[in-house]
Amino acid sequence: MADLWQDAMDHAVAIARKAGAVIRDHLQGEMTVMCKSSPADLVTMTDQKVEELIMASIMEKFPTHSLIGEESVSAGQPCILTDNPTWIIDPLDGTTNFIHRFPFVAVSIGFAVNKELEFGVVYSCIEDKMYTGKRGKGAFCNGKRLQVSGQTDIKQSLIITELGSSRDPEVVRHIFSSMQKILCIPVHGMRCAGSAAINMCLVAGGAAEAYYEIGIHCWDISAGAVIVSEAGGVLMDVEGGPLDLMSRRVVAANSRNVAERIVKEIEAFPAERDDAS
Ligand code: IPD
């Protein structure tokens, strides 16, 4: 059973590359920008078109599989992870970056069976970096093996987070309060790349020691979660305990030490679960 799901993974890589090419093409053109849950939760026709392209291609090749896609869920499709082989898709992670042509945009495809992630593919399409991770088989970027940083001293760490898309003053206050506490541990620095999937790949490749966020969705982190753990990293909930894909909370770090130190400083706030309705 060594190569179980390899054909699905090969398909994910091929379709992510194709989707990335479409995103690159659309980067230069006119964009129609629409709002979803808040004035800063944005979507474009490209997000929708690319999701349709990815989903049609998967349904054609794997008709019995289930699909969870960001834009389909926004349009009212359920977001429930069952035991059936399930593709968890963010067609364009970093939509705000895309709109502003800030060059960190990714196609993210995670794949779970029996609710366990089997592989993840993140294609950072402007950088042309193809990140892959397969359970028990390691993580790679453009074919080169990824390894998390060996730095376990939080005071010598670079931490990534995001400001998220909520503009509710109370949520923003919690986000800044956590950032202030972590910055003042002190750490070397903090960064926001604007794409959860790319943030996780940066941790997997050793460019940062950790990434955390509350408010992300399962499609932002499923693929990155496999890539981080296969690169030797750890995944955790923002209050400690195991990562729950549907909880909209994540800590991805190079080590348990760094993850647990960050968890002590994060001010958690409520976010409705992805599978709530
Ligand atoms: C967003 C990005 C962003 C993160 C948000 C996500 P999207 O995904 O990953 O970095 O802060 O929480 O929703 O909307 O661009 O696919």
Brief digest:
The mean pLDDT is 97. Helix content is 35%, strand content 24%.
Structural features, described:
- With 277 residues, the protein is of the alpha+beta class.
- The chain has 2 domains: 140 residues, Fructose-1,6-Bisphosphatase, subunit A, domain 1 (Fructose-1,6-Bisphosphatase, Chain A, domain 1, 2-Layer Sandwich); 112 residues, D-Maltodextrin-Binding Protein, domain 2 (3-Layer(aba) Sandwich), CATH 3.40.190.
- It has 8 helices and 14 strands.
- The protein has a 7-stranded mixed β-sheet, sandwiched between helices. The protein has a 5-stranded mixed β-sheet with strand order 11-10-12-14-13, sandwiched between helices.
- Helix 6 packs parallel to helix 7.
- The longest helix is centred in the N-terminal third of the chain and has 22 residues.
- The protein is globular.
- The chain starts with 5 loop residues before the first helix and ends in a 12-residue tail after the last helix.
- D-MYO-inositol-1-phosphate binds next to strand 4.
- It comes from Paramormyrops kingsleyae.
- InterPro entries: IMPase, Inositol_monoP_metal-BS, Inositol_monoPase_Li-sen, Inositol_monophosphatase-like.
- Its cofactor is Mg(2+).
